[in-house]
């Protein structure tokens, strides 16, 4: 019976064959212990000299790291194993003997590992992070599909900017100027006017010369947009969504969280509702915490977000930022036009902003004023203005950064480990 490692518990006390790679091994006299992986998981294969042919035992002892094979054996329960099972090997068919594999069990520097990212992905911890990433994506689709959203794919090449052109990658689109998308939001607003509740999931690009542990040049965003929904209703959707994703990871990634030594007691507290503080209250809180130089009207940096998050054990919404530091399309707070109906969701444990969202301006005259203030002239933005001309309605939306969310739930320090092939300020390889 040919199967995979993740399916082996189904075949307890039965003999199966697995296509696998050797991630590590050790031997003690007449027993060889093979650490096997097949992409679905990891399992130990035990080769006892007296139970196999001499050829098989010598093969087990001489196989090199990352050699590939078909390996056959009996699946038995093993309470000492994190996986709970091991294989009692009876036969090995070598497919390819690897040589001089560069990533050995010893310590390697980060730059070395990043240069070998195509191989580093095979390691147990990187495998666990990617499985958690996959679960976040899977549960995202489940949440929005179950709640009646339609997935719409916005373009990656655009003729306009969602939030200003200073941090965009410029390119030529035949004889026109174009940009790599920094957000699909404007297009999702158009889609919401057609389908009511929509979401997108795709790559976005920021030409931001940042080297912090929270920044990537290319990253993935989940961007829902909902018609007939106000700001407060949007916040409720956001906290329900994040709570659902966290619970899905806790339920379906127990082994991966254990591999990463993640403190899951902190994640178990992540249930809606989440606390909310206004930008005004956040400034006061920062001053109380010793940030004397922060002034009203300034944006918050990573140290500020971390300090605010320390006061809560759940994600916290910071609401109603000054209009001057937010995007042109955000609706002003009624009676207080200097601030807007927006919120950033700040993750606990120092992981920073994972969601930014707002209620959008739905009034044509006000949007025309914003166009004038921000110099949004020319045909590239004409279609976006027309959304306010033809059946405008109150609507809200938000964007969740996948990699920051993966970092938070996995407990890893840097977002470069949360995407298969990171694009950083000085890295376009591999």
UniProtKB/TrEMBL annotation:
Signal peptide: none annotated. GO terms for cellular component: cytoplasm. The keyword Cytoplasm applies. Gene3D superfamilies: Bira Bifunctional Protein, Domain 2, Nucleic acid-binding proteins. Its EC number is 6.1.1.22. It catalyses: tRNA(Asn) + L-asparagine + ATP = L-asparaginyl-tRNA(Asn) + AMP + diphosphate + H(+). GO terms for molecular function: asparagine-tRNA ligase activity; ATP binding; catalytic activity, acting on a protein; nucleic acid binding; transferase activity. It is an enzyme of class 6 (ligase). Pfam families: tRNA-synt_2 (PF00152), tRNA_anti-codon (PF01336). It comes from the Bacteria. PANTHER family: ASPARAGINE--TRNA LIGASE, MITOCHONDRIAL-RELATED (PTHR22594:SF34), ASPARTYL/LYSYL-TRNA SYNTHETASE (PTHR22594). Belongs to the class-II aminoacyl-tRNA synthetase family. Homodimer. This is Asparagine--tRNA ligase. It comes from Virgibacillus indicus.
